[in-house]
Specification:
21% strand, four-stranded antiparallel β-sheet, alpha+beta
Length: 361
């Protein structure tokens, strides 16, 4: 593809025609306004008076956040200063042009550089392309053009960044292996060293069939044959991604690079499909979406665990109520027995006293 650049996009610039002795010199003889617009935006108005300085006006413009930035520039020297106001649009292109609509200053601010769009042509097309920026990413799919100078034609060669592709595949492999490690760590079943009864300690995921099922689905999505493809590559193993005995996967970037060099299109279809049939990553994305969406396997499992927790909490509360009632009953029995014992002690004392009196008679 050849690109010929007719013009580069640039922003608008407005400058003052009258210089001042310093940045703190005043810009107006009396009250008034300085007004301007940026593109199709609303009119921006700044009140000025005899005390408004050049740097004060620049600061007020910047404070509007209107899409233009003002600065004070000395075109002269320290001995013979010539301070001017400069207002530049923040973005390039005609849609971001600056227009001075009212100027009650005495420094004569006018547009000295009009905003311009980037104009270029692509070989094979008679119509020129116009964009507001010199960075163009919507003309050639997957390619960003950085326009830096007019002229041409310039040949644009598009090649696959094999290292970038390998990096993305490796990121998926690492994420998958991290998940395998997480499940393995939380599924360990070990002998409880603190117990004398030979009990075991199991991780929270040790006997969770849902987790096992999800891992099986992920493994199948990654390593299974991609149905419908007619190219040379229908398995990730053909592109360097293989399964290990412990359930993890390995990645050989050199094998992927070799496959890209041999048949880039078929490798691309292996990962992203051919437009009719989805590739490995399409299949993986679909599966993960089904698992994690509302009503998916994880949501159902979470709801089941929440129901179990709620049921256990109800049983604990019922048990606590039963214990509290039993404790209350025991306390009541204890109080009754204390009353009975006290009565018996009183009767015993009375009897002892009576018997003692009989013996003395």
């Amino acid at each position: 593809t050849e690109v010929t650049v007719t013009s580069l996009a640039r922003g608008a610039i407005a400058t003052s025609g009258t210089g001042l002795a310093s940045a703190t010199s005043t810009v107006a003889a009396g009250a008034g306004t300085f007004e301007f617009t940026v593109g199709s935006g609303a009119t921006q108005s700044i009140a000025i008076d005899a005390t408004t300085t050049l740097e004060g006006l620049a600061g007020a413009i910047n404070g509007l956040g209107a899409g233009a930035t003002a600065s004070v520039v000395n075109l002269g020297t320290d001995a013979t200063p010539d301070y001017r106001l400069r207002i530049g649009s923040d973005s390039t292109g005609t849609a971001n042009g600056v227009a001075v609509t009212n100027d009650d200053t005495n420094i004569n601010v006018t547009v000295s550089q009009a905003a311009v769009d980037a104009v270029f042509s692509v070989s094979g097309f008679a119509t020129s392309v116009t964009r507001s920026s010199n960075v163009v990413s919507d003309v050639v799919p997957g390619v960003t053009l950085n326009l830096v100078a007019t002229g041409g034609p310039t040949t644009v060669t598009v090649s696959t960044d094999e290292q970038a592709v390998a990096g993305k595949v490796e990121a998926v492999v690492n994420a998958y292996n991290d998940l395998i490690d997480f499940v393995k760590t939380n599924s360990a079943v070990e002998q409880d060293a603190t117990s004398d009864e030979g009990s075991v300690e199991a991780g929270p995921l040790a006997f969770d069939g849902t987790v096992r099922g999800i891992l099986d689905g992920l493994r199948s999505s990654l390593t299974g044959v991609v149905e419908g493809l007619t190219g040379d590559y229908v398995l990730l193993a053909d592109a360097g991604v293989t399964t290990n005995q412990d359930g993890s996967i390995s990645f050989d970037s050199s094998k992927l690079t070799a496959a890209l060099s041999a048949n880039e299109r078929d490798v691309a279809e292996l990962f992203a499909g051919d437009g009719t049939n989805g590739g490995v990553f399409d299949r993986l994305h679909t599966y993960l979406t089904e698992v994690t969406q509302s009503g998916g396997l994880l949501a159902i499992r979470n709801d089941g665990i929440a129901d179990q927790i709620s049921s256990l909490e109800d049983r604990i509360a019922a048990g606590q109520r039963s214990v509290a009632a039993f404790e209350k009953n025991l306390k009541a029995q204890f109080s009754s027995l204390e009353v009975l014992v006290a009565g018996l002690q009183t009767q015993g004392s009375f009897l002892q006293s009576a018997l003692g009196g009989l013996q003395q008679s």
